[in-house]
Design goal:
7-stranded parallel beta sheet, about 20% strand, alpha/beta, Alpha/beta knot, 5-stranded parallel beta sheet, single chain, about 40% helix, 3 domains
């Protein structure tokens, strides 16, 4: 029988069930289990051992230490559910590295199947059991423990925090380290002065907005200094000081011959880029064209979806199309952003051509966090942005690469989606 979605069911198969039960009965995790928000059971391997001594381990063939035998492990797992109704995880140094994304995957699995966690011991478990019954091996790092109970309980604890209601304040989970790919900010409590060290004054002032700004900046500082490699995977939108804007330039851009040109607006660009901007939290999608007829066309298309029949037919599309704004020139668009944000944006120009002076998107993610300014991504149409636009931007992002033979002819709407996901996507 498959477990109903929304209530994780976890089984820890162990030779030390009392150790597991003791931890499961404590603190936040224990309250969640007692409240029925999730079910966690300790399954004693020895209950499935045979013989007078209930033996669960034996010497390794070929010499070496002790290994958990396959028969009692298989019998314990089979007692929990049928093969198709369970998912078996085995903490092991040979496994995939544990991370927040994997915790979320395991939570989803535990909502529809029984999640079974095997606690190894000694030299591990018989490889035939691993091959036959284990779906995923999980490593907590390049070190070895005496048993699998600690990592098994770590999996249960991390998973339980994601179950709605287990942790009292939902924002406490969303602000955890790794939840959005960034480290958490520092925390302080009483006394206000500890051995000469005080609490940052902003935390004592009662200004909620100032406290949030301080915590965002502190999280950025800690991540950049302690775990800079995390930035590549982090969704940084909540940490950007100011709004994020996408500018699509139709003039001046290059034509096939390399001359300055003006391109036409397309409906596919408007719809797809607007939806990408709504998905990733971009404040406005500014379409820049000097042609009045093109600006009127854009407004007409957007109006159909925002206030016309399209708004009633597809309200979700209306949310996206509200992001669209037109502008005559690039300078006008940037000045409009400056007026809204009270700060001139940090401008990132994009290009599909290899050239000097570009920076990788990872480097630019770090710089966006360090700059503490609103951000404007500038995308060209036609055959790309003019040299003048590239030169006037704060930075130029390296071309998006497929990693094969250098072919690079993505549509602007594809480039926008890829760029936004690299900077602001996490899940």
């Amino acid at each position: 029988m498959i477990a109903p979605r929304g209530k994780p069911r976890i089984y820890v198969v162990t030779a030390f069930p009392e150790l597991v039960k003791s931890y499961l009965s404590s603190s936040v995790l224990g309250r969640g289990i007692n409240s029925g928000l999730l079910e966690v059971s300790a399954v004693d391997i020895r209950d499935f051992a045979t013989g007078a001594y209930r033996q669960i381990d034996d010497y390794s063939y070929g010499g070496g230490g002790m290994v958990l035998m396959p028969e009692p492990l298989a019998a314990a797992v089979d007692s929990i559910s049928r093969r198709e109704d369970r998912f078996v995880a085995y903490p092991s140094p040979q496994g995939v590295r544990m991370g927040q994304e994997l915790v979320e995957d395991l939570r989803r699995i535990a909502e529809t199947k029984r999640l079974v966690i095997i606690c190894g011991h000694y030299e591990g478990v018989d490889e035939r059991f691993v091959t036959r019954d284990v779906d995923l091996e999980i490593s907590f790092g390049d070190f070895v423990l005496t048993g699998g109970e600690l990592p098994a309980l770590a999996i249960v604890d991390a998973l339980a925090r994601l179950v709605h209601g287990v942790v009292g304040k939902r924002e406490a989970v969303s602000q955890d380290s790794f939840f959005s790919g960034m480290l958490d900010n520092a925390h302080y409590t009483r006394p206000e002065n500890f051995r000469g060290d005080g609490v940052p004054g902003v935390l004592l002032g009662g200004d909620h907005d100032a406290v949030n700004r301080f915590r965002r900046k502190d999280a950025i500082k800690r991540t950049l200094s302690r775990r800079p490699e995390m930035i590549a995977r982090a969704g940084i939108m909540p940490y950007v000081e100011g709004g994020v804007y996408v500018l699509q330039l139709h003039h001046p851009v290059l034509d096939r011959s390399g001359s300055e040109s003006t391109t036409a607006v397309t409906g596919m660009d408007l719809h797809d880029i607007a939806r990408a901007c709504r998905t990733y939290g971009v404040k406005k999608y500014l379409v820049v064209t000097p042609l009045k007829s093109q600006r009127e066309l854009i407004k007409k298309v957007a109006s159909h979806w925002v206030s016309g029949y399209g708004a009633r037919f597809n309200p979700d599309r209306a949310e996206a199309m509200r992001k669209i704004k037109t502008s005559d020139t690039l300078r006008q668009a940037l000045e409009w952003i400056e007026g809204k944000e009270r700060a001139f944006p940090f401008t990132i120009a994009t290009t599909a051509k290899e050239q000097s002076g570009t920076a990788s998107w990872v480097t630019l993610k770090e710089r966006v966090l360090r700059e503490g300014r609103p951000v404007a991504f500038i995308f060209g149409t036609g055959w790309g942005l003019c040299d003048e636009t590239l030169a006037s931007s704060d930075s130029i992002m390296s071309p998006i690469s497929g990693g094969l033979d250098g072919y690079n002819h993505l549509s602007v709407r594809s480039a926008v989606s890829i760029t936004l996901d690299r900077f602001f996507g996490f899940r």
